[in-house]
Amino acid sequence: MDSGKAEPIVALRDVRLSVGGFEALRGITVDFPAGKSSVIMGPSGCGKSTLLKVAAGLTPPDGGRVRFRGKDVFQMSERALLDLRRRSGFVFQDGALWENKTLFENLALPLQVHFTDEPAAERNRRVVRALERVGLEDSASERPAAMSGGEKKIASFLRALMTEPELLFMDEPTLSIDHAMTERIRQIIHDLKARGRTIIAVTHDAQLTSTLADFLVVMDAGQVIEAGDFDDVKRSHNPRVRAILSEVLKDIASYDTDLLELLDGESSP
């Protein structure tokens, strides 16, 4: 599971987790390199989202270790954990906005928690600038129930970015939203990548994967079956890895000639 020359920002060692009697993660060991974009992929139900939440420190495992820059996430002091929350952001698949708060209040909350010494007027200006960036300033007073799925997803992105985190976790960021919103989110992600932020994402978006991924983690049945630089993993000789790539990334051929050749080879007699 060598991540190459980059120092891991998040490292998992023999991570295990059962959910409702089901073994969701089965001895996961993987390093996510700092300053790169990592994509976790695999068939539905293989444990991708669970792995992402454990790696982000949101879900404690039953066993194993999760380290952020060498420190055990689940043994951190309250102060260290708060610092980790400030330095990382999580974009939830369903948005996960506070339903009893307006869009403005949802975005202001991370600033209120992590920038207590900053004047309220400056925090408010930062929220307004974020809303203006994506054209949602007129929706500032709306609650999530009045927002479209795409608007909720954009709002989740903005909230995750309010503290300018060095590490961003994303769970299916372009799932179930229209083309215009998808393109807007892709642009936000690529801007973050260009600025050197570390990204760890679960996605089935073929175009996003092709243009985003530096590092690829392939999962199956609660296990990591291959991980490494994207260009290396997509040429894997492991039949199961190739089968998963063929299924999950079959639409990527329009964006990646090398993978098109790989998939053609997979289908050849």
In round numbers, the mean pLDDT is 86
Order of helices and strands: EEEHEEHEHHHEHEHEEHHH
Percent of residues in beta strands: 15-25%
Low-pLDDT stretches are none
Give the helix tally. Answer: 10
Strand order of the largest sheet: 6-7-8-3-9-10
**Can you tell me the CATH superfamily of the domain at 8-97 and 167-184 and 195-267?**
P-loop containing nucleotide triphosphate hydrolases
Structural class by secondary-structure content: alpha/beta
Q: Can you tell me the CATH architecture of the domain at 8-97 and 167-184 and 195-267?
A: 3-Layer(aba) Sandwich
Rg result: 19 Å
Distance between the termini: 31 Å
The number of distinct β-strands equals 10
Report on the biggest sheet.
6 strands, mixed
Provide the CATH topology of the domain at 8-97 and 167-184 and 195-267: Rossmann fold
What is the CATH C-level name of the domain at 8-97 and 167-184 and 195-267? Answer: Alpha Beta
